[in-house]
């Protein structure tokens, strides 16, 4: 099994290479994971920088002492994959973010589609966005990533169209698509943006606006997936097709 990952704001050490992991991450390492001297951990800032270290001991219930190695920066994956995720009901949004993070998505854009039952407004919207971001962070740690996906502010349909227009490849998952996503020609670099609609589907007006921005409809298969699982399935297809999983 690979070493557990913990998030840090900095990789500071004393003169002997000793780093103290404290706070919530230190408490999780000491009191939940119960790490002991001799075990290996990975510290990351969630933005691509990482350092492997060896546990040398603990202090109290929330301080893990680590002999830290060199800090390295992992290259940015290419092509970059962004999923525009329509807002699902209940906690299915967090489920979508969690599984897409585990699979390897680079960014998630919450989308207030016209047929979304859920709409993010005011404090409720900020709270929901915070949950999505916290989910991406925790799923990134759990899946041993060192570059966590970005979760953007909620976007309007016109903002999504602008994002699609700037992409090197743009697609909308939709049952009207005649071409399967698994066969489409994809760029080897640049950006890919994929739109996942709500349970009620992408409206004709939204499809038209996205088509004007250069995003055609594509299908995954014969079945229609729920909005909380379609993005994960499509992400897997695209990452395999682009060679990022090779």
TrEMBL record:
GO aspect biological process, one term: methylation
Family classification: Belongs to the RNA methyltransferase RsmE family.
Catalytic activity: uridine(1498) in 16S rRNA + S-adenosyl-L-methionine = N(3)-methyluridine(1498) in 16S rRNA + S-adenosyl-L-homocysteine + H(+)
Residue ranges occupied by any Ribosomal RNA small subunit methyltransferase E PUA-like domain in the UniProt entry: 21-68
Gene3D superfamilies: 3.40.1280.10, Hypothetical PUA domain-like, domain 1
Subcellular location as annotated: Cytoplasm
NCBIfam families attached to this UniProt entry: PRK11713.2-3, RsmE family RNA methyltransferase
E.C. numbers: 2.1.1.193
GO MF, any single term: methyltransferase activity
Major place of residence: cytoplasm
Function per UniProt: Specifically methylates the N3 position of the uracil ring of uridine 1498 (m3U1498) in 16S rRNA. Acts on the fully assembled 30S ribosomal subunit.
Transmembrane segments: none
InterPro entries: Alpha/beta_knot_MTases, PUA-like_sf, RsmE, RsmE_MTase_dom, RsmE_PUA-like, tRNA_m1G_MTases_N
Positions of the Ribosomal RNA small subunit methyltransferase E methyltransferase domain: 77-238
Keywords: Cytoplasm, Methyltransferase, rRNA processing, S-adenosyl-L-methionine, Transferase
Protein name: Ribosomal RNA small subunit methyltransferase E
